[in-house]
């Protein structure tokens, strides 16, 4: 459902000489405080370990905030009596446009019956890809700059 809504991929014939990255389903049970299962979740991920550097991806680096910086920020927010909000971006990586051409195998059990030998050409990042965190960082950075934020120099 998220893949269709976010226009993540398109089914194409397998081009000659490309590396096809496998896919795998990850299943998880969401529980409440008492430990009772409230929802079953599944996520399709790319088997990024089969990607070839320089072929399937170039940049993988994405900056991460240091714990000390987060503590300092929260401490200053408390001192100055600021409200701090937290958010979670649903299916974050499925929003990020890929710079590279990446092809993934059709998920097992969900093969297209009319084109079982086709593969998916990714338009957007998929969890498990080596470059997915970098693509998300670039997407978020562009959004923040377009919204009026200014990139710091430190």
Strand content: 15-25%
* Assembly of the depicted chains: single chain
Structural class: alpha+beta
The rough form would be described as globular
Whole-number total of structural domains: 1
Q: How would you state the average pLDDT, rounded? A: 85
Helix content: 10-25%
Q: How many E strands?
A: 6
Summed up, the helix count is 3
Written account of the structure:
It comes from Noccaea caerulescens (Alpine penny-cress). It holds the Pfam family RVT_2. This is Retrovirus-related Pol polyprotein from transposon TNT 1-94. Residues 6-151 form the Reverse transcriptase Ty1/copia-type domain. The structure is a single chain. Strands 1-6-5-2 form a four-stranded mixed β-sheet, with no helix packed on it. The chain starts with a helix and ends in an 8-residue tail after the last helix. It is α+β, with helices and mostly antiparallel strands. The protein is 21% helix and 20% strand. It has helices spanning 2-5, 67-79, 132-146; strands at residues 9-12, 20-21, 23-31, 37-46, 103-104, 119-122. It contains three helices and six strands; from the N terminus they run αββββαββα. It has one domain (2-146).
SSE topology:
Elements: H1 2-5, E1 9-12, E2 20-21, E3 23-31, E4 37-46, H2 67-79, E5 103-104, E6 119-122, H3 132-146
Parallel strand pairs: 2-5
Antiparallel strand pairs: 1-6, 3-4, 5-6
InterPro entries: DNA/RNA_pol_sf, RVT_2
Protein name: Retrovirus-related Pol polyprotein from transposon TNT 1-94
Pfam families: RVT_2 (PF07727)
């Amino acid at each position: 459902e998220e893949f269709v809504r976010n226009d993540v991929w398109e089914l194409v014939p397998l081009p000659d000489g490309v590396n096809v990255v496998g896919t795998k389903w990850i299943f998880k049970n969401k529980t409440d405080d008492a430990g009772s299962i409230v929802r079953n979740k599944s996520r399709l991920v790319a088997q990024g370990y089969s990607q070839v550097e320089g072929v399937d991806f170039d940049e993988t680096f994405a900056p991460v905030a240091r714990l000390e910086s987060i503590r300092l920020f929260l401490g200053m927010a408390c001192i100055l009596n600021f409200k701090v909000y937290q958010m979670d971006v649903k299916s974050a990586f499925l929003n990020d446009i890929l710079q590279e051409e990446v092809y993934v195998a059709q998920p097992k059990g969900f093969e297209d019956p009319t084109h079982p030998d086709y593969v998916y050409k990714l338009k957007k990042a998929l969890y498990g890809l080596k470059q997915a965190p970098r693509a998300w960082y670039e997407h978020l950075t562009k959004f923040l700059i377009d919204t009026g934020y200014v990139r710091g120099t430190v």
